[in-house]
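Sequence in, structure out. First:
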Amino acid sequence: MTPKIEETRDGFRFRGGRLPLDLPATLAGRVSGNHRDALAAPGDLDRWLVAAGLAEGLAGASPEDLSAARELRETLYALALARAEDRPMPETPREALNVFAAKPAAAPWLDASGAPRLKGSARDLLTSVAREAIDLLGGPDGARIRQCQGPVCAILFLDTSRKGDRRWCSMSACGNRAKVAAFRDRERAG
């Protein structure tokens, strides 16, 4: 049995199924316009890198690393949203992703237990996310990127359901809210 991966770790949401879809989730309120940036300070980026499983300890992110992470986040959101909406990827974000992915990335290594890990600076770890995004967006899984249909949710996720008809970023969050609302609507109508 596969262990359940926690959807929320250290205050960050990981519902996308892949890190290039989880990084854009660090900006909440995209639909409402009431933005809440979970990457408000360099230490927040360090915490996200640890929560994402990219770093074992704090990577020592700088203000420049934080700025790069925010730029990468918006680049990934624009490109993944284009894939989710089945439209051509916009040129400027596509070129920005290519430039980001061409930078030095974190080095892979095996820890004492045989688990794969990455070593590098915060920027190196972000480059690894950018490279994973190229594989995701340009590969067959890119066609399975969806946007949550929750009325106030903009989270992008990889639909790994057999039928390819998943609608919610999470059944325990948006899916449950939708089911409760539908039940209440039926009760009122009935």
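Second:
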Amino acid sequence: MAFSNPILVWAVVGLVLMLAELVVPGGVIVLLGSACLVVAGALSIGLVEGVVQSLTLWFIAAIVLLLAFRQVTQRLVGGDSHVDNTDEAIDLYNQIAHVKQTIGPGQTTGRVEFQGIEWPALGDGSIIVAGTDVRIICRENIALVVEPVAVETAKN
């Protein structure tokens, strides 16, 4: 029986995991496979005996390898990490929108079109008539807070 030899089982599982890294890149699976090879080596020299000691050594070796070499494998393999702006309010600030429905007076909401979508909008308290361009100041819940754009600024 080939499966009765634990050294062979740990070595085969380790090699399969290391080859699986070619299919599922990321650098973690190769380290888990390396931990299996460490256990196979420890079994072959008689350092550990039995399933419990083998699994304990595998857990310890896997954690040590992951902590020690994760950054190295990430640099070699690469990854899909990318940092993007997660604060949508910053993307809205100082953008120009077009008034579709009159805004104001006071806290009366109107509607503006921004990036092809109509949004509810609040003004600065004055009446902002439909057809004018406005600058987005911020967002309050789902409504955009806007102010009229000066004529010179709108032409530029």
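Remark: Helices lie at 6-20, 29-45, 50-77, 88-92, 151-155.
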